[in-house]
Amino acid sequence: MAELPQERRLVTSIPGPKSQALLVRKTAAVAAGVGVTLPVFIARAGGGVVEDVDGNRLIDFGSGIAVTSVGNSAEAVVRRASAQLADFTHTCFMVTPYEGYVEVAEQLNELTPGDHEKRSALFNSGAEAVENAVKIARAYTKRTAVVVFDHGYHGRTNLTMALTAKNMPYKEGFGPFAPEIYRVPLAYPFRWLTGAENCAEEAAAQAIDQITKQVGAHNVAAIVIEPIAGEGGFIEPAKGFLPKIAEFARQNGIVFVADEIQTGFCRTGQWFACEDEGIVPDLITTAKGIAGGLPLAAVTGRAEIMDAAHSGGLGGTYGGNPVACAAALGAIETMREQDLPGKARRIGEIMLGRLRAIQEKFDVVGEVRGRGAMIAVELVEPGTKNPNPAATAALAKACHAEGLVVLTAGTYGNVLRFLPPLVIGENLLTEGLDIIESAFSRL
Ligand SMILES: *Cc1c(COP(=O)(O)O)cnc(C)c1O
User: Fold this and answer.
1) Of 159, 201, 348, 351, whose CB neighbour count within 10 A is largest?
2) Which atom of ligand 1 is nearest to the CA of 156?
3) pLDDT, tens digit, 9 for 90 and up, residues 390-429
4) Ligand 1: distance of its center to the CA of 205 in Å?
5) Are residues 66 and 145 part of one domain?
6) CB within 8 A of 60, min separation 6: which ones?
């Protein structure tokens, strides 16, 4: 197939007539609960561009929610997954195994933080990985409680809905939820009432106090935390908070689980966001960026913890599908060969520079934050810290109309978030930022 030109091109309004016709069919055929951010139907995609059925080319600042970090249909992903498709598509690893699964586990064991002995298990989705991390931690500790944080997001299955903080849209009407889940404060510097400088210390003290007083540390199987809260609004916990929580877990025999499903695989400028403060998690969950767009997820961690679940206790029909494993090996090859951690850092420099200049000019910008290619703008009512979801929605809409795919996030729905593919060209990145700036001007 011909290379997709790496340029924005608008030939109809957004969405165009063919997308609108498909949207009518979608509404008639697809459950209403499955919403869409931007109803342009995609025909092909690659690099930093998605092309719709009307022939419009949009700049991609979303990567399908941090998934296509290596770009859509990346060469090594296509090559390896196609070869695997032709060889065999499925045997079920639990019935008759295959090498690709083992190779992905070896890569995960090598790439994740810490040089201790590790094991991995593969699954289909992020939520499934988080559920399995909890199963493994419970089997290892013989305890039941799980501690999670304000603004946390861990998925949409029953257990992971319980782990997720935000009610609307994830939980509303879908209970009852799994028991033995306890939520404690997250060090959110921008919104910490006594000021960002006190945030790490005070939030850690409050979290630990709540765990100790309300749950009992000896009852806690796992502490599950995102090193940067993704859906919660790209909240980077104040420096010092994560090490304090990890140390508390270590002292109390609690399994420390880093949910790196959104932050992992080069997204933040390092292979894993935990590395930023030298955290070595006991278990780490990965998905999204792992396989260049194919569904794959993993739990990786200390051998003695991972091996605590009895034989046959972990798995699933499709977990570690051979085509998805081949795609993951292609994605990892791309990340190594093209130095995608370095590319993510460069994207971060360019975006933060431009967005901080925008912040100087527009007082709806409360904060610009993030690392690498995981960057966000939190919008407020001017002169206050009151969340401004209306401005956020208007800005996203304005960007969409100009052919730039952006996403929103945040507990208060007031965060514009940017997750470009790490292979995006600098010209497209700059053009996307120009569109964002002009959207602010017209707000
Ligand atoms: C997306 C996400 C999940 C859930 O992954 P799915 O593949 O959608 O089930 C869990 N944790 C984090 C941090 C995520 O960003």
Assistant:
1) 351
2) 9
3) 999 999 999 999 999 999 999 999 999 999 999 999 999 9
4) 28
5) no
6) 45, 48, 49, 50, 68, 405, 420, 421, 424
